[in-house]
């Protein structure tokens, strides 16, 4: 957030981007996540450490883009980009799956399933930064696609563009929080649940990491956060724990199950 690069996708250790030189200024950094700068977080004092440069820390950020709006998740929502010190939306003129594909890849959210138009995730506020976006799918970021210029449009926020990516996942249910709840995934135009057959901490670990919620503390079964409705999309899920998304794990096939919603699976993340 401090360098206007969107949200954090990875917090890398062990000099992932190579070892630095010179001073190691900070150690034992403990942020709440709400601080305005890194040096505003708790730490052991400037220059006070017992580290080597082989322990240099790194980050992977989403870029100046985010998904927002009612019903949004980490991988589905209204598309907003950061420009000129403020967040703004994207007009849906010519908005299609090619454009959504770039957004989904930029956010490390898999491939694009839908490119919703007409403020599907609610109308934004403030600037409408992009219009007539035309991506070839190969661009590394949305602002690298052709467009009519920042702020150049005759659109209203009722035309705000959105995306739904293949790794769209959410935690919901009675008593759920941002990092605990019934697991639901988006497939074939609807949200559905996961059956708890074989559900364990390895499976929960993948979910927790996928939604940037730390590690798995528990893998509750039997509709711990209440029974869902609609489809039960996954059953017999078997993750090694290293997969980047739940749908990459072994399972019995989308919609193939012998379950009831009383068996809906859940996670509690750290």
From TrEMBL:
<feature type="disulfide bond">
    <location>
        <begin position="31"/>
        <end position="41"/>
    </location>
</feature>
<dbReference type="Pfam" id="PF00530">
    <property type="entry name" value="SRCR"/>
</dbReference>
<keyword id="KW-0677">Repeat</keyword>
<keyword id="KW-1015">Disulfide bond</keyword>
<feature type="domain" description="SRCR">
    <location>
        <begin position="169"/>
        <end position="270"/>
    </location>
</feature>
<dbReference type="InterPro" id="IPR001190">
    <property type="entry name" value="SRCR"/>
</dbReference>
<dbReference type="GO" id="GO:0005615">
    <property type="term" value="C:extracellular space"/>
</dbReference>
<feature type="disulfide bond">
    <location>
        <begin position="208"/>
        <end position="269"/>
    </location>
</feature>
<feature type="disulfide bond">
    <location>
        <begin position="239"/>
        <end position="249"/>
    </location>
</feature>
<feature type="disulfide bond">
    <location>
        <begin position="195"/>
        <end position="259"/>
    </location>
</feature>
<feature type="disulfide bond">
    <location>
        <begin position="91"/>
        <end position="155"/>
    </location>
</feature>
<feature type="domain" description="SRCR">
    <location>
        <begin position="1"/>
        <end position="62"/>
    </location>
</feature>
<keyword id="KW-0325">Glycoprotein</keyword>
<dbReference type="GO" id="GO:0031638">
    <property type="term" value="P:zymogen activation"/>
</dbReference>
<dbReference type="GO" id="GO:0005886">
    <property type="term" value="C:plasma membrane"/>
</dbReference>
<dbReference type="InterPro" id="IPR036772">
    <property type="entry name" value="SRCR-like_dom_sf"/>
</dbReference>
<dbReference type="GO" id="GO:0004252">
    <property type="term" value="F:serine-type endopeptidase activity"/>
</dbReference>
<keyword id="KW-0732">Signal</keyword>
<protein>
    <recommendedName>
        <fullName>SRCR domain-containing protein</fullName>
    </recommendedName>
</protein>
<feature type="disulfide bond">
    <location>
        <begin position="104"/>
        <end position="165"/>
    </location>
</feature>
<feature type="disulfide bond">
    <location>
        <begin position="135"/>
        <end position="145"/>
    </location>
</feature>
<feature type="domain" description="SRCR">
    <location>
        <begin position="65"/>
        <end position="166"/>
    </location>
</feature>
């Amino acid at each position: 957030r401090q360098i206007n690069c969107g949200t954090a996708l990875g917090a890398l250790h062990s000099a992932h981007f190579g070892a630095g030189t010179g001073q190691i200024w900070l150690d034992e950094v403990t942020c709440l996540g709400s601080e305005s700068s890194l040096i505003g977080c708790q730490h052991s004092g400037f220059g006070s450490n017992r580290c080597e440069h082989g322990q240099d820390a790194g980050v992977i950020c989403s870029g100046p883009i985010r998904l927002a709006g009612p019903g949004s998740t980490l991988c589905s929502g209204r598309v907003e980009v950061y420009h000129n010190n403020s967040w703004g939306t994207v007009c849906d003129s010519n908005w299609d799956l090619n454009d959504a594909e770039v957004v989904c890849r930029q956010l490390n959210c898999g491939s694009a399933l839908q490119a919703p138009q007409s403020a599907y995730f609610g109308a934004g506020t403030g600037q409408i930064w992009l219009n007539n976006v035309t991506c070839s799918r190969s661009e590394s970021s949305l602002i690298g696609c052709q467009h009519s210029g920042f702020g150049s449009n005759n659109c209203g926020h009722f035309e705000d563009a959105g995306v739904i990516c293949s790794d769209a996942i959410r935690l919901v249910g009675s008593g759920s929080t941002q990092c605990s709840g019934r697991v639901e995934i988006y497939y074939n135009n609807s949200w559905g649940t996961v059956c708890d057959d074989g559900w364990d901490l390895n499976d929960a670990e993948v979910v927790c990491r996928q939604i940037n919620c730390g590690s798995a503390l528990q893998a509750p079964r039997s509709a711990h956060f209440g029974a869902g409705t609609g489809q039960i999309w996954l059953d017999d899920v078997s993750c090694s724990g290293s997969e980047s998304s739940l749908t990459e794990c072994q399972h019995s096939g989308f919609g193939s199950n012998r379950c009831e919603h009383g068996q809906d699976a859940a996670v509690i993340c750290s």
